[in-house]
Design brief:
Layout: E1 4-9, H1 12-19, E2 29-32, E3 39-42, H2 44-48, H3 57-66, E4 70-73, H4 76-93, E5 96-101, E6 104-108, H5 118-132, E7 137-142, H6 145-157, E8 164-166, H7 170-178, H8 190-198, H9 204-209, H10 212-218, H11 221-230, E9 248-258, H12 261-282, E10 286-295, E11 308-317, H13 320-334, E12 341-349, H14 364-384
Parallel strand pairs: 2-4, 7-8
Antiparallel strand pairs: 1-6, 1-7, 2-3, 5-6, 9-12, 10-11, 10-12
The protein binds a DNA duplex through helix 3, helix 8 and strand 9.
DNA sequence: TCTGGGGTCCTAGGACCC
DNA sequence: TCTGGGGTCCTAGGACCC
């Protein structure tokens, strides 16, 4: 029988901010989304205040302030680096690891000796990550990924567990699942939960007991798999080598609305350049590109415009110049004066390997020159900072549309000038 | 004043083909 | 009044995840 663990970092972004700020150990901490818009991470103290995940910051600003909360803008350079360190440690502890998100990983523990005592194994994982990286993790263990996720939920729910729980034994499982709202099950979101509750399915145990034919009749097959996993039969294998990415999206809300095309052009160019960098990072070429613009949907009284358009690239490419040309061409067609746009974005699709996109008519020497140039640009920017080399249409320096990040912490671990100093 | 960003999978329905 | 059936591909929308 397979056995999985789900390990995740507690309140990851908030814990990451605390790592280099021991003075914040007992203070409430929140981290905001891009543009300092929403709450995306909360320390335990903030959760206790009843501040929900995803809440717009301006609505809870006063509450947070009077509790003496330390507020941070998202610092992805820091989180990505710490995430990589956590994953490296996990890879030393388990034969196979699937990095599932920036702050969590599934471990395949099948056949591991440590499993005679799963809880002890979980405690070892906690201790190792804490000593290697300095971050607190929780560990859930179960015979399927869905049950490992649920065990992780239980581990966090009840302080008695100290962040480790196991759902391997069938009879313990039946009891535990009764107390878990169906909404907490991995794969059951708000919509499905509502419909399930209308059918009288309130707990994870209820879902496990729901007849398979009934589920398939009313829901997509994905939910049938989820229920099967709750019953202890694995439908999802560990995916330690994920399939190549299918699309790349680069989009941002602006720091202030854009009313002039010249500013939109700068923004779209900026996003296209970033999307292209990320594309090259995957080693793939893009065959199609979409641009979208959006006004502010929260301002119902204002005129709304949310145009988008795609085009297939003449030849699949990872060259920033090609992607810029295509993106700006579309943006120009989408643009209509008289609107206050608050967001724009680029999507790259039909990603494919360079080999797959070459044919009889491919100009291989032009391709080689393009690859070399882009490689050089990327290398310089990696070494000297993201905008050491920019393209003509990109704006250098500040602009009103750039994202707000008022409370950004230093890039402690990835930039020499930001290295923490001990006095 | 202030409401994130980046992904995947599934399904239904239309277009098209034989 | 009559106007098949079945297959494949694509797209849009909706659901989920973090």
């Amino acid at each position: 029988m397979p056995i999985y663990a789900l390990v995740d970092v507690n309140n990851f972004y908030a814990s990451a901010e605390r790592l280099f700020r021991p003075d914040l150990a007992r203070r409430p901490v929140v981290v905001l989304s891009n543009n300092d818009g929403c709450i995306v991470a909360r320390s335990a103290e903030v959760k206790a205040l009843g501040v929900p995940m995803g809440e717009p910051y301006f609505r809870v600003r006063d509450t947070l302030q009077s509790a003496g909360t330390a507020v941070f803008s998202s610092n992805y350079a820091l989180y990505a680096d710490l995430s990589a360190r956590v994953m490296r440690t996990l890879e030393e502890l388990a034969p196979a690891v699937e990095v599932y998100s920036i702050d969590e990983a599934f471990l395949d523990l099948t056949g591991l000796d440590a499993l005679s005592d799963p809880l002890e194994f979980g405690r070892q994982v906690q201790a190792r990550v804490l000593s290697d990286v300095g971050l607190p993790v929780s560990v859930g263990i179960g015979p399927t990924k869905t049950l490992a996720k649920l065990a992780n939920y239980i581990a966090k729910q009840d302080p008695q567990h100290n962040g480790v729980a196991c759902l391997r034994e069938p009879d313990r499982r039946t009891k535990a699942l009764k107390n878990i709202p169906v909404k907490e099950v991995w794969g059951v979101g708000g919509r499905f939960a509502e419909r399930l509750e209308a059918l009288g399915v309130r707990s994870a145990a209820d879902l496990a007991l729901l007849r398979d034919s009934r589920i398939r009749q009313l829901f997509p097959v994905t939910l049938a798999r989820t229920a099967e996993e709750l019953r202890g039969r694995a439908c999802h294998d560990l995916d330690s080598e994920p399939a190549p990415q299918q699309q790349i999206i680069c989009s941002r809300t602006f720091g202030a609305p854009i009313r002039e095309y010249s500013a939109m052009r700068e923004a779209v160019a900026d996003y296209a350049v970033r999307a292209a960098e990320r594309l090259r990072g995957t080693g793939q070429y893009a065959g199609a590109l979409t641009v979208f613009l959006r006004t502010n949907p929260h301002l119902a009284a204002e005129p709304q415009h949310t145009p988008s358009a795609s085009s297939r690239l003449p030849v699949p490419t990872a060259d920033t110049r090609d992607l810029l040309t295509a993106a700006l061409h579309i943006a120009e067609q989408l643009w209509q004066p008289g609107y206050a746009y608050i967001k724009a974005g680029i999507m790259l699709a039909e990603l494919q390997s360079p080999a797959a996109s070459a044919d009889l008519f491919t100009d291989h020497s032009a391709r080689a020159r393009s690859e070399q140039l882009m490689h050089t640009v990327d290398a310089i920017n990696r070494r000297h900072g993201q905008s050491a080399v920019t393209f003509g249409v990109q704006r250098r320096g500040p602009a009103g549309w750039r994202m707000r990040r008022k409370n950004l912490s230093p890039a402690y671990t990835t930039r020499w000038s930001d290295l923490p100093v001990v006095r």
